[in-house]
Amino acid sequence: MKDLRSYFNHEVPRVGEFLERETAGLDGLVREVARHVLLAPGKRIRPILTILMARAFGYEGDALPLACALEILHSATLLHDDILDGANLRRGLPAAHTVFGNTETILAGDVLLALANRLGAGYDIPRINYLLAEGIMATAEGEIREIAFLSDPAADRKTYLEIIVGKTAKLIETACRCGAVLGGASRDREDAAGEFGLNLGIAFQLVDDALDYAEASSDTGKPEGGDLREGKVTLPLIYLLEAMDRAEAGALLSRLRAKSVGPDDAREVLRRVREAGLAERTRDKAAEYVARARQALSRLSGCRETDILAQAAEFVLTRRR
Amino acid sequence: MKDLRSYFNHEVPRVGEFLERETAGLDGLVREVARHVLLAPGKRIRPILTILMARAFGYEGDALPLACALEILHSATLLHDDILDGANLRRGLPAAHTVFGNTETILAGDVLLALANRLGAGYDIPRINYLLAEGIMATAEGEIREIAFLSDPAADRKTYLEIIVGKTAKLIETACRCGAVLGGASRDREDAAGEFGLNLGIAFQLVDDALDYAEASSDTGKPEGGDLREGKVTLPLIYLLEAMDRAEAGALLSRLRAKSVGPDDAREVLRRVREAGLAERTRDKAAEYVARARQALSRLSGCRETDILAQAAEFVLTRRR
Questions:
Q1: CB hemisphere CA count around A198 (13 angstroms)
Q2: Cβ-contact B121, A130 below 8 angstroms
């Protein structure tokens, strides 16, 4: 993992500096919202994947604007999603809409979507804008499915997978495809890069959902058991629901639907998920997707960057925050 | 105006059919919101301008997807703006967020922004995506300025002009530039097309703001004096404020700032604006911008389409709804 760490240590500050410069030029009201979300400490996974994939395909130009376009798109969707979810925390900080209001936050999201498209258009490669548009659509559609699932929760693995593909994995796929396109990849090899990203993204979200049942607020920046209290049915809970008898599962789903899972209910569900090792079982499922990601990666010519991408895939599994 | 009318009569249904097909494929929850705003009877000015400008530059391919991308972008901004403004009516129908809720409406706006970018990317001309991104940014920034102006209203012509350029004229400029680019225009001639659109857009909004003081709800789909009651300072009101003594103007601005303009206040302001012919004076100002638009148009080679564009510029001045 030494290579991976040194790569991140080198690239993450460059991403931060670019975002710093790019957001400094935004209009007053929107600037502060954009900087609040973009300059908060984030994992910068999407931009680093774009840079790594571009280099893996031999691109020697400046991948930073496109890489940052992916981070900007991601942040724009976070701004809008946090309004929809009524979320109070983001990246360990108060969510933007709680600080700046809904109006400013909706508009800042729109400006960031446009800024990302403008950065993408700067490369004069039409497929890049097509991919960015597809990525945004998939992300919004994933969020839509998640909202529908909130009002009709079920122990439904297929719907859960569709949701995490849409709201998380597709944009990570986009990040990888964009890097490949920048490196002049054929469609076939772009598809391999995309498959790597898609499966990595699914694994990433699975681990995120496992962490929600396993860790405390200070590490993840989210309250422990937050998904449960918001009525979100994720894989650890689906496993628990599947193990319950029909009546018990039905009662819990009713409380989730009514958003009436109280602190005592939540503690009890957390205890049972932990006792049955269901967060770990979710991580095992993530490992299957990481294996698929690595298989897709093996279709690319090996080089230093593909080694680091393989390390990144492993890191997704072992991260504790 | 016969040419203009027959052009609209021919093209508007084609725009409607394309939007009908394109929105039919959207995800369930978002589809209904998108169709509510996109299939309501609209003026379709932006798409028709794109088509006319593309043909004026000799483009013989299918301009419809790009033309509709402009209408889709416009509708996406309407969805978000109506939430921000708390508007209840749009195109004579209940505003989408009052029917479908804020969550669905925010997401539908995001999906439509992405859909427009995807349609633009389909042309394989990077400048088109650059222009679309610029258009969205300018529109959002115009809305931001308008919101700031609401909390600090003044008889300030310069700020008013900046607002209408951003929230209306820039996207009309974008529609014209996109058409020109599709027709392979040089940058110089694209600029002339853009200047036509910008000035036409300013005139269009000036007339809109004049109509708000002159017409009744059934025609415009907006309540009479609605801008005033929302605390919006537009040109007819700026003229009135300029004619008032300092104390009277200050008192009215205070009531606007506090959004406490009651029905009696509003009736009195409307009466004075009408008595002093300030809506007509606003139309005269619009005529100046139409003249600039026609001057920009004269820099393009004359043809049937430039004749129709000139008619469109005149029509903006004479429309009563």
A1: 18
A2: yes
Q: What is the residue whose two structure tokens read 């109280």? A: A262
Please name each of the domains of chain A with its CATH number. 2-318 (1.10.600.10)
**Reported pTM:** 0.89
List CB contacts of B20: < 8 A, sequence separation 6 or more: B35, B39
Chain B positions touching A121 (Cβ under 8 A) are 126-127, 129-130, 133
Name the closest residue on chain A to residue B124, using Cα atoms. Answer: A126
Do residues A173 and A197 touch, judged by C-beta distance below 8 A? yes
Side chain identity, residue B60: E
Q: B30 to chain A: which residues are within 8 Å by CB? A: 140-141, 144
Selecting from A111, A124, A134 the residue whose C-beta is nearest the C-beta of B118 gives: A134
Separation between Cα atoms, residue B75 and residue B35, nearest integer Å: 10
Written as one string, the DSSP assignment of A100-151 is H-HHHHHHHHHHHHHHHHHHHHTT--HHHHHHHHHHHHHHHHHHHHHHHHHH
- Closest chain B CA to residue A106: B80
Amino acid (one-letter) located at A28: G
ipTM value for the complex: 0.86
Residues of B in contact with A110 (CB under 8 A): 77, 80, 109, 113, 136, 140
The answer to whether residue B110 neighbours chain A at the CB level (below 8 Å) is yes
Interior CA angle at A32 toward A29 and A37, to 5°? 130
Measured in Å, how far apart are chain B's first and last C-alpha atoms?
17
**Amino acid present at B287:** A
pLDDT tens per residue, range A164-206: 999 999 999 999 999 999 999 999 999 999 999 999 999 999 9
- Verify whether the Cβ–Cβ distance B114 to A134 is below 8 Å: yes
* Nearest-neighbour CA in chain B from A318: distance (Å): 33
Average pLDDT over residues A214-232: 69
- Find, in chain B, the residue whose alpha carbon is nearest to that of A29: B144
Strand partners, B86: none
DSSP of A297-317, one letter per residue? HTTSPP-HHHHHHHHHHHHHH
Residue A27 in contact with partner chain B when CB distance is under 8 A: yes
Q: How many CB atoms are closer than 10 A to CB B204? A: 27
Contact across the interface for A133 and B115, Cβ inside 8 Å? yes
pLDDT-derived band of residue A223, with 50, 70 and 90 as boundaries? low
* Min Cα–Cα distance to chain A from B16, Å: 22
For A230-256, what is each residue's pLDDT tens digit? Answer: 889 999 999 999 999 999 999 999 999
Subunit contact B77:A118, Cβ cutoff 8 A: no
For the purposes of burial, counting CB atoms within 10 Å of the CB of A313, is it exposed (0-12), middle (13-18) or buried (19 or more)?
Answer: buried
